[in-house]
Amino acid sequence: MTAPPPSKPLTHHDWETLIENFQSATGIEKWNSLDPPLSDHLLTSLLRKDLPLQLKFHLLIFLDEFSISIFPHKNLNRLIDSLKTVIQSPPDPVHITPLFKEQFMISVTSVVVCFSEDGNDIQTVTESLVEVLLTIINRPNFRSDRHTRAIACECLRELERSRPCLLSDVVGHLWSLCQNERTHASQSYILLFTMVIHNIVDKKLSVSILNTSLPMLPFNTPGCMNQEDFGSDSGLNTKELRRALAFLLEWPQVLTPCGMMEFVSMVIPVVVALELQPSMLRVQLFGMIHSYDPLLCHVVLAMFMRFIDAFDGQEGEVSSRLLLISREAHHYLVFRLLAIHWLLGFNQLVFSKQSRIEKNIENGNEACSTFYPSLFDPLALKALKLDLLASSSVLRLKSDSDYNSSSSDGDDGLVDTVKVFEQGLLAVSSFKWLPPGSTEIAIAFRTFHKFLIAGSSHSDSDPSTTRNLLDSMIFRTLQVMLVNMMLESRRLVPVVAAFVDRLVSCKKHSWFGERLLQKFDAHLLPKVKMDYKLVYCFPIFDRIAENQTIPPCGLLELLTNFMIFLVEKHGPDTIMKSWSQGSRALGICRTMLVHHHSSRLFLRLSRLLAFTCLYFPDLEVRDNSRTYLRMLVCIPGKKLRDILSLGGTMLGISPSSHQTSFFNVQSPRPSQRFKTFINLASCIHFERLTPLLVKQFWSLSLSSLVVSNSKPAYLGGIRDFEAPIEEKEFSDSSNSPVIPETGRTNQSHEPLRVMDSNIAEILNTLRKYFSCIPDFRYMAGLKVSISCSLRFESNTFNRMLGINNTATFQEEIDALPAIYATVLHFSSSAPYGSIPSYHIPFLLGEPHSKDHASQNASLSIVPLGKEDSGEEEKHRATVVIYLEPREPTPGIVDVHIETNAENGQIIQGQLQGITVGIEDMFLKAIVPSDIQEDARPQYNFDLFTALWEACGSSSSTGRETFQLKGGKGIAAISGTQSVKLLDVPANSLIQATERHLARFVVGVSGEPLIDAVWEGGIIQNVIWEDASPDATPVTNSDMGPLRLTYNNEEYEKGGIINSRQKNLGIFLVLIFLPPRFHLLFQMEVGDVSTLVRIRTDHWPSLAYIDDYLEALYLS
């Protein structure tokens, strides 16, 4: 752990660093360990005069933000003392300004409130703070500090809000201060007094607010707050409270709009609790509705909502004022929009009173005409006014109908919704010739929707019936308007189609959309003009073709005439136009085939398709129509619809995706035939081509066992190259460097070493070698490959897909199942990096005769030849998995398959995982590119010698580090060693070595061993040392059991005595373990046993080597 910073006062730079650390939540521990604590430093710095005033403001904000974490609640008394010191200090324009005093009060109040909300017992601290604030405000009409007194009142109000009735014992003094204050700080005094009165009424305290016998200072917490029954109904002093409220209602003129909002929000509950007449509020405050401030208007509307009966008869005045605000262009747009929002809610409230039944009001159409948007209103305001017009017309229509049912005066006052609708659209009449994406068009169709469904909510309890809505005049008018609109301006057809889609997609109003489509079929199709622009109407034709309630005869007749028109008008200049529009017409025919019964389509559609096959000029359109005609004639209706639906689903799109939709373009939808199989591994087999010698079912991982902050050498062996750091700086004000304890441990100084020429040559060899090893953190690392095979059983696969296969053997051979576009995804919890997926275009299933039972029955008769091997390759796919290990450790690679069956199903599932063994990590050592081919055996031998020396326990390479390829990373060698005795004859050991380790052998010594290996001819390009490894020959009389002497000196010198066997020679094996480790074997081969000396710079790999050597030589 780093040492704490110095105990001297923190400088300006220290405070800036500290604030940044706390805000970023980094490096906080070292500041919390200061002695004296950080809170003392903070209070001291606030009172220092050598620190700039701006920094003190930052410290106060820091105190407000992190008070809980830096201030123990027992030390809050010191904070209050510091506040007293600042308040009592004389004004200083440089160090202690009035603004600094005010911010200090605000921060301290915030800290106390935070601690009190956390449940800490800080009653004494609260009393001290209240006493300081009361002292400040107890100077009414003192003009020089009026703003400071206002801030003190606000602080007291926050304390009163957090602890209700805290100031109930001094409420009489507060009233007296309110009466005496005449500066602009009077608003704060009034609001403080109102807050106390509100809490007294809310808690029902029996307190005399006129009593000032109890002194204001010193302040003590009221005794009622410590009682268990605090807040119970103990009665109110109603007479005094009414008198106080009357006093408060005389002061609205001194309050700002924001202050008025807070004032009224506290006064309304008091009026309700005391059961006072709301008219007193109306008399005092209703005039604010004529102000030009939205907050004051909001105050009046809040009172209106709460005391609606008290404002009876003034609804018209409020509505007229809000409407006037929305019309006055000099107001801000947000104020005008807010007025319309208020009108929307206000009208619903007014009409819910059903006052029209009791007294006649103005004509309905004239009333609604006041809401018409003007021509030059902003579009946002037009949209809201049209919403208001739709809502008001429906509400007034209901009110008029109720009035008409109870009166015999006639229907002169009834509102004409159609007239209101048509006149309201005049404000956005330009939508008829503007582009489809214009805002005016969006507003117009939004208004259509509002007027259409305004009388029907989405609630299930809505009493309006569908029949009444469909027979309404507004719906009939809208039908005619939309038909004329599409005939006059075909560019608006996509917008109308989107409007119909919105209605059809709504569960409550889908009947509107269907009735509109029926209207279009009856009145639009006969009137459209036959020309090339008819294609603009295709989006609405698509909706008509999808609707099963509309007979397709009219649309088919129109499409037939359109095809005849395209054939007649075809020429050299219309080739692409004929192809495009003919293809789209066939798309509508396909939509009808999907959604209608064939019997309704057969006669007219077959004539259309036959005409297209014979006479249409485009070849592709003729072929498509011929295909549809054959399907219509030959395939039954239900199956035909399934085939066409499957075709659209397999392409990932809807059969009739309305791509011309105006408001939303549908994206391709995912396939619905996506199926996951749990037991997929029972029929699809994924296996290794070469089985492992050792099936490792465990893996050694020590990452979670590391206790120290620094990683072990084998985990953190690669690090960035950095210059040595001599010292670490904790603050700019430190006079002496402080060295952390961990630094002393990890940076122990080693005495200088004297290297001879042999050690220097070893280091040069290692430096050159490591410079060829890529640093996997910055470039692609070394990869290992695992070859596998994928196959699947035909019978099991068919049963899994639900295919009943009762074919004969020969038929089964001719109709084997296949899978297409197979993708294998690989993942592993072992550190193998990102594993790329593998793609297989096509794979044929294995026939039933390939089952194990049939194979075993025929092995004795039919030999396995090349033809059988070639036949078997047809049913297997070779897959290569490429791993980029970050650590040479065994593991399991999980395999996930996604493939396509012949019936269009997409199959996915988990296959059997592939086990990765330690032998999969074996690679040949990297040879630099400048080494010639004939010099590589000697280089590998020298590299083995250098690594053997570096991994030894008495290594002379010391703490050398070697730079990796790329120049950014360095690595160090931390070696370990082991020994393994194998009781295996020499011939068996040589054969196993030649079979599995031949490519890793770099040297063979000993004449008998060289002769045995040379005859095999498998191990080549190595160093052959003819000298016998034994200095003296061993006679047969000295034969005896092998003996190991665990003596360091003898072990290092290779002097372990084998007294009963003849040593044939030594194998030297060099294995590279990615990403940068090595495994070295020195195998002393005897005629009856072999001693394997093992050295490595990755000691966890020793956990797997024993099992590997036993499986290699002893199995």
From TrEMBL:
Gene Ontology BP term (one): endosomal transport
PANTHER family hit by this protein: AP-5 COMPLEX SUBUNIT BETA-1
InterPro entries, sorted: AP5B1 (IPR038741), AP5B1_C (IPR048981), AP5B1_middle (IPR048979), ARM-type_fold (IPR016024)
The AP5B1 middle domain, residue ranges: 238-640
Name of the featured protein: Uncharacterized protein
Annotated coiled-coil segments of the chain: none
Single GO cellular component term: AP-type membrane coat adaptor complex
TM helices/strands, residue ranges: none
SUPFAM superfamilies: ARM repeat (SSF48371)
Domain AP5B1 C-terminal: 1065-1111
One Pfam match: AP5B1_middle
